[in-house]
Amino acid sequence: MIKNVRVRLTGYQTDPEGSTDKNEQEFPAQYYYKNNCHYLVSENEQTAKSARYKFNHRYLEVIRDGDIYSKLTFDTKKYCSTMYKTPYGRMEFVFNTHQITLSDTPEEIRMEISYEMSSGGQLVSNNRTVLIIRPETT
Fold this sequence. Notes:
Elements: E1 3-14, E2 20-34, E3 37-44, E4 49-55, E5 59-65, E6 70-75, E7 80-86, E8 89-104, E9 109-119, E10 122-135
Antiparallel strand pairs: 1-2, 1-10, 2-3, 3-4, 4-5, 5-6, 7-8, 8-9, 9-10
């Protein structure tokens, strides 16, 4: 069954010098559960951008379409790399996922991910992302 949900995505990014930035987004999405995986699909009709999320207790995959296409994979069992396709060219990043925690209750699904991001063999940032999914209230 597909459900309308609200998603809150909070990211904390710490650069090699120790400076931390926080970024929060909240958006509507469609949610469903199939074959032991959670799925989210969100679309912004005004900007023609979409995002698809597939996750379980071990990995998260995010595919974004729009001005910038990206496929991000976070997996606790292996390093994952991705190419960001931007209007200015391609950029490669490597993700080393340290931990993924997932809790699922009728009121809320919560996922926390901690990972390092590097490019060209250099650390770009240490990151923690919190994804909270709640049923849409009318």
